[in-house]
Amino acid sequence: MRTCASTCLLILCALNGELVAEDKPAEPTPQKPFGLTERIPWTTSRVKGNPEPPPPYKLQREFPNLKFNQPIAMVPEPGTNRIFVFEVGGQMLLFEDDPDASDSATIFDMKWIDSTIRGSGWGMTFHPDYKENGFVFIFLNITKRSGQEKEHNHVYRIQVSKEEPRRFVEGSEKLIIKWPSAGHGGGPLVFGPDGYLYIGTGDGTGGSDRDNTGQDLTDLKGSILRIDVDNPPEGKAYGIPPDNPFLHIKDARPEAWTNGHRQVWRLAFDKETGNLWAGEVGQDLWEMIHLIRKGGNYGWSLYEGSHPFMLERKLGPGRLYKPIVEHPHSESRSITGGYVYRGKKRPEFYGKYIYCDYETGIVWGFRYENEQVHEHQQLSDSTYKVATFGHDHQRELYLVALSGEIFSLVPSGAPSTSPSDFPRKLSETGLFTDVQQQQPAPGVIPYSVNAPVWTDGAFIERYLGLPGEQKIKFGNNRGWDFQDGAVTVQTLFLEFEKGQPASRRPIETRLLTRQEGEWLAYSYMWNDEGTDADLVGKDGMDRKYQIQDPSAPGGVRQQTWRYAARTECMGCHSRAAKWVLGLNTAQMNRDHDYGGVVDNQIRSWHHIGLFEDVPRKKPEEIPKNSPETPPSELPQLTNPYDEAAELTARARSYLHANCSHCHVSDGGGNAKMELEFKTADEKTDIFNVTPYHGKFNIANAKLIATGDPDRSVILYRLSKLGHGRMPILGSTVVDERALKLFRHWIQGLPGAEDAPPVTDSKKLLQAVQSDDDAERSRATNELLGTVEGAMAALSAVDDGVLSGNAKADVIAAGSTNGNALVRDLFERFLPEEKRTKRLGTTIRPEQILALQGDATRGRQLFFKADGVQCRNCHIIKGKGRELGPELTHVAKDKDKMKILENILEPSKEIHKEYVSYLAETKRGKVHTGLLIEKTDTEVVLKDNQHQLIRLARSDIEVLEPQDKSLMPDLLLRDMTATQAADLLEFLSQLK
Fold first, then answer.
1. Of the spans 266-275, 688-697, 941-950, which averages the highest pLDDT?
2. Which residues partner with 391 through β-bridges?
3. How many CB atoms lie within 10 A of CB 617?
4. pLDDT value at residue 254
5. Is the peptide bond between 301 and the residue preceding it cis, with omega within 30 degrees of 0?
6. Integer angstrom CA distances of residue 541 from 563, 679, 827, 828, 846
7. Closest Cα to residue 981, out of 881, 848, 807?
8. What is the enclosing helix (H) or strand (E) of 588?
9. Are strands 296-297 and 319-320 parallel, antiparallel or unpaired?
10. What is the DSSP letter of 650?
11. How many C-beta atoms lie closer than 10 Å to residue 907's C-beta?
């Protein structure tokens, strides 16, 4: 037996006490090298300024010697030369209306009412008889108060002393009205010319009207209230005006003047016309300006502005009104309502409604005359967050920034063609030392992501530039936070020989940059030599490329590349995604090759100090979800195209990367799906859930029909071209590898108990492969006779189940199918130049009017073409069906332009005989149709399916005319321009 030498030495030591021996310490484990060893500052950035001409006006500081602490309202004091300012902190101050004013005096603090109050001041207004009674009305959002458990909104009346110095009369406060809230509380209040107090409320929730109160009149939320503060009944703080519109509705709050609001932010009466204007903050996609009308229903949360949001919800009382103006979130994200200008300094503004956006700083104006918007234009683009508008005693307009300054609009003085320093070429951006070789400038860092977004087959290289010593705020809630000047870069390459990486050429470089608090998107188009790229205009452009592809006819196929408009880019780079899609923990938690050293990106970036220091309670504690957390404990997406990875992780990662920037709470999509990778399956609302926005004629359709790909609408949308395709932006090429992934994933999910029996798709697919031409043709036509059958056929083509004549027959029959829902699935097999050029959702009337139509072909379209609905609702010389107006003499008093306008905008002018009515029963059932008959006992409607709906008068809760035509929008969407011109020519001859 062998004995360890060290053991023997220790024994000797114990025996004689003279020798001392110790084990030799183990060698320390060498630390894994970092991919990046030091921070190199990026000092060459020239991504600054704006490439567009400057707007005609700019913000000029007024009252420069004054600055307030988060001012939220500015109102002139009646009968004096002073102005009141109300601050978010609940303090009210006054100052002299003098450009040189340097002092302001505090005359009220909400804590004088109750020292335990915690909350915010949101609005104020003077009583019409303020000069006599000294009454001021204030809107407080109180989040905490002794004895109050939940957040509430309060409207108080307080009194200001008549004696100088003006001051709150202690003990004069009187609570007028209050209601519970947990966000979106409203805030504005104003007296109308009728002497009543109008108060704007919100839906009281954090998003998506979670309490479903937007259409509920049994509470005070989601409404504009109208109350009488001068004639309250005994024991009450206010009365109800006798002409308030909802007094006849059981359980409705009588205070309501309108309903269907998400978050009204600022109300203002036009003193000249009496019109009441409101700004309303939207949620996912739109910001609105409303003209407020008695008894109006402004749609939330069935609609966001004029756009469907959650149509399955119950519509409340009141006539639906669309916004007068809407802005997409690409240009406006938090509207601030303003005033109709009635001052003298800017005569060009007189009669214009001036308003702005809090987040983007853009200021707009428009005139509203004869129920039409005129002269709608951008006036200014500031860097300030304007929280409210104000005016002085001369009705001169002021913009009040939350940072404390007061501004006016003055001419910018810059010519409309003023040049900009913004780089017009990629080589001028300072991002690369060698653009052609894509060699990043010192300090610009390359990176990669776990789950790349589908970009029509392009390969992407990614970079990040942080000026100087800027740092990133790390976080796991969807994204990281960056400072002004940060630039993210994507260069996209296409293979010009399919399957040959060496043939890749750069075609586009995309920049996303944070400037003055806002993320902005720009695109550069590469020249054919690959030496540089030029800035693309703000409206984007299309360019056709020729790709060598052995599978294409003649070995070459055409691919149209969309260089997106700047507003299109921001449709995906949304607030919900924190603007930057790839730079987040789940995407960045992966290894990257830093020139031979492979290291986790988060580890490397943290090592060189790219992240802000993480606060910790104890020095030895590492907070959860910090850059110091071991990568194995951080969230991580899976590469959807890694066939060795787990199937569900691949599919969920694909949905996260391509869809979750919209389909999450408060994102851009309103299908109620929650597609973030971290969301539990049962909370995604996709598995065996009926679609909210279209079933595409799929029998028993589900978003994901577990076990049945052919009934899964998400897969259908990914598979098709044309209307209804997803993703809706940024892609016109089907991701075939993703289709295989989703088919296999869905097929492997346990089938739902209520799933229908297996169809005959398998049997038909076998018949399609028959050698008998007649049998193959019969089976092909039957298989493609339903959308779910077409899905099965498409799967068989993609998976190689069909080949030879069977494959050719299915593709030919599918790509020319009379059913557009089937045809859209197979159009990708046609050369791009041979695909149907449809008008789509953006139709330019001049494109149609410029063509000489054929009346004979137009007649065929009207009466015989599949998919054209005209004959289902209109009669011409006794043929067709009657729902809309008879068209036998439609051109007698209308020219081509007017007829086309009526088709493109069917709700713009509705003849009184064809006004649709909405009937709501006492049991909550809603019906819409033409009013055919109305008696003392019965109401008869005809719906758009020509069905008569008979309702007992005693069962009807609401019967209201609608401003929405029964004639659908976008009727010409799936037509070609030639077809539309033919139809128009036929109609224009009916005199």
1. 266-275
2. 397
3. 7
4. 97
5. yes
6. 5, 37, 23, 22, 19
7. 848
8. helix 585-588
9. parallel
10. H
11. 15
Query: Which amino acid would we find at residue 84?
Result: F
- 723 close to 840: Cβ distance less than 8 angstroms: yes
pLDDT in the model for residue 4: 37
Give the percent of the chain with pLDDT over 90.
57
CB 828 within 8 A of CB 734: yes
User: CA-CA-CA-CA torsion for 620, 625, 629, 632, nearest 10 degrees?
Assistant: 150
Find the DSSP H helices in 271-375: none
CB 356 within 8 A of CB 388: no
| Nearest C-alpha neighbor of 731 from the set 717, 716, 711 | 717
C-alpha dihedral (766, 768, 772, 773), degrees to nearest 10: 180
Contact residues for 842 (Cβ-Cβ < 8 A; gap 6+): none
Nearest to 716 by CA among 822, 853, 865, 642: 822
In residues, how long is the chain? 991
Is pLDDT of 428 > 70? Answer: yes
Average pLDDT value for residue range 782-797: 94
Question: CA separation (Å) from 341 to 123, 293, 367, 396?
Answer: 20, 20, 10, 7
Checking DSSP bridges between strand 105-109 and strand 276-280, what pairing results, if any? Answer: unpaired
| Spacing of C-alpha 291 from chain mean position | 23
DSSP 757: P
Report yes or no: 787 and 822 within 8 Å, Cβ to Cβ.
yes
Alpha carbon of 335 to those of 71, 122, 264, 303: distances in Å? 17, 15, 9, 17
Report how far apart the first and last C-alpha atoms of the chain are (Å, whole number): 117
**DSSP state for residue 898 in the 8-state scheme:** H
* Residues 589, 590, 595: CA angle, nearest 5 degrees: 130
DSSP per-residue string spanning 798-830: HTTSS-HHHHHHHHHHHHT-SSHHHHHHHGGGS
Q: Which of 797, 807, 950, 972 is nearest to 901 (CA)?
A: 972
* Residue written as token pair 């204007």: 277
Within a 10 A sphere around the Cβ of 741, how many other Cβ atoms?
20
Kindly tell me the number of DSSP H helices and DSSP E strands found in the chain. Answer: 18, 47
E-strand ranges in 767-925 read: 875-876, 879-880, 916-921
pLDDT in tens, 843-877: 778 778 888 889 998 888 888 764 456 776 788 88
CA distance 817 to 839: 18
Cα separation values, 857 from 613, 834, 839, 861, 986, Å: 71, 21, 18, 6, 8
Contacts of residue 619, defined as CB under 8 A and 6 or more positions apart, other chains included, come to none
Token pair listed for 669: 């999509």
Task: Classify burial at 806, counting beta carbons within 10 Å of its beta carbon; exposed 0-12, middle 13-18, buried 19 or more.
Answer: buried
| Rounded distance between C-alpha atoms, residue 736 and residue 825, angstroms | 12
Where helices occur in 615-688 by DSSP H, the ranges are 647-659
Name the nearest CA neighbour of 306 among 332, 330, 331, 280.
Answer: 280
Contacts of 661 (CB under 8 A, 6+ apart): 572, 573, 574, 576, 577, 581, 667, 668
Q: How far apart are CA 598 and CA 100, in angstroms?
A: 63
The larger pLDDT score, comparing residue 255 to residue 570, is at 255
C-alpha–C-alpha distance, residues 635 and 642, integer Å: 18
Query: Looking at residue 5, what is its pLDDT?
Result: 36
* Spatial contact of 556 and 423, defined as CB atoms under 8 Å apart: no
pLDDT digits (tens, 9 = 90+) for 505-546: 999 999 999 987 778 899 999 999 999 999 999 878 889 999
More confident residue, 671 or 565: 565
Give the model's pLDDT for residue 15.
33
Q: Quote the strand ranges of 23-70, DSSP E.
A: 57-62
Between these two residues, 162 and 746, which has the higher pLDDT value? 746
pLDDT single digits (tens) 394-419 = 999 999 999 899 999 999 875 544 45
Element containing residue 508 per DSSP (H, E)? strand 504-515
pTM, rounded to two decimals: 0.67
Least confident of 163-177, 493-507, 936-950: 936-950
